Amino acid sequence: MNGIVLVMVSLAFVLAGWRQLVWVPAGGASAPMELLSKAMIDAASGAVTLAIGLVGVMTLFMGLMKVAEAGGMLRIIARLIRPLMIRLFPDVPPEHPAMGAMILNLSANALGLGNAATPFGIRAMQELDKLNSQPGTATNAMVLFLAINTSSVTLLPTGVIALRAAAGSHDPAAILPTTLCATIGSTTVAILAAKLYSRWSAAPPPLAAAGTTNGTPAPDSHAVQEAPLEDQGQPYPLWVSSVALTCLLGLVPATVLYGQAISPWIIPGLMVFFLAFGALRRVPVYASMVEGGREGFQVALRIIPYMVVILVAVAMLRSSGALDLLVSLLGRFTAPLGLPAEALPMALLRPLSGSGAYAVLASLINDPAIGPDSYTGMLVSTLQGSTETTFYVLAVYFGAVQVRRIRHAMAAALTADLVGVICSVLACLALFGK
């Protein structure tokens, strides 16, 4: 990460400096270096505002996660999906709470619940860090989990559908099939890339090699005492896991058909379900929520320095004109392939800046010359709904567990982003033409 940030900042400085040297004042316009300075200050302030904005959501959902953890829900979920998860994450003990937290995170992402997915993902990273023999260095499981997150397994892109409806689209949900195709492609490649690149990046040794027994970390002072001892036994029969996986796969057609109707019920339903589960397992739900919420507040503050550094570097890159230069160079080559120059900024910005990509999407689909139902409107909507802001996810998830050496995480995530763009173009060409 050190080298990536250095390259981004240096490139932005050089380009802005060159533009400053050839700049001719006109009409009271600000100088390039002045714009760069303003972008840096605004991004630093915006990063803190964004992190503080996460405090409430983090407090709520980390509190719910604490109830689920105390009631043994994470272990139950891990046992249900064990056949799949042990193949994806062989370094994680099959019934470790990290398994359940990862499944909750991926499920929330799939349903478009970004606010809920982030706290679940941070909890998963915290649990994975308990298995880390070298704190500060990402493990293979951390990298794979983050790569899957940046590829954004999305069944219901609620935010994009709402924006398309506001722009006057005749069929706001028309992007569901293309989004699904793109996210399946990018997620598949994210898994393959993380597995492949791990061969060329030395991983921390398994925790069992660092002095623990059977891969189980020693208890720590912050661990929650889980109520149900019966959940520590053998995995469920294969048919039970098969039914659970079938139900998960059944979310795909159900979401496509009924997603808009059920989406307003999901977050309230989650809260009722978690609290009812905790009460049935004799968990003190109020005390557990308060304890977990306190932890969420601390995590939100802990990630601020990481977010400031990443978002300032991205803002410098945008303000310097580096992205505009890249668009002008690539646009003539990508347009014949189905990625018009108008949509190219979206493809380039999406991994870098969520707000920037959202602004590009809004401006394009509200442009009368393009509109939400044109090929370009469908493509940029698919790009927004099928991928995640890679640099933001890196900053938040790794920042929450103080990881500085990210190994091959960036390479795997950007590979998945590239494939997500390619799959989006192919899906839109197949369904909507040019």
UniProtKB/TrEMBL annotation:
Keywords: Membrane, Transmembrane, Transmembrane helix. It holds the Pfam family Gate. InterPro entries: Gate_dom, SpmA_SpmB, SpmB. The chain crosses the membrane at residues 43-65, 103-122, 142-163, 175-197, 238-258, 265-283, 303-327, 377-398, 410-432. Residues 52-162, 300-401 form the Nucleoside transporter/FeoB GTPase Gate domain. It comes from the Bacteria. GO terms for cellular component: plasma membrane. This is Nucleoside recognition domain protein.
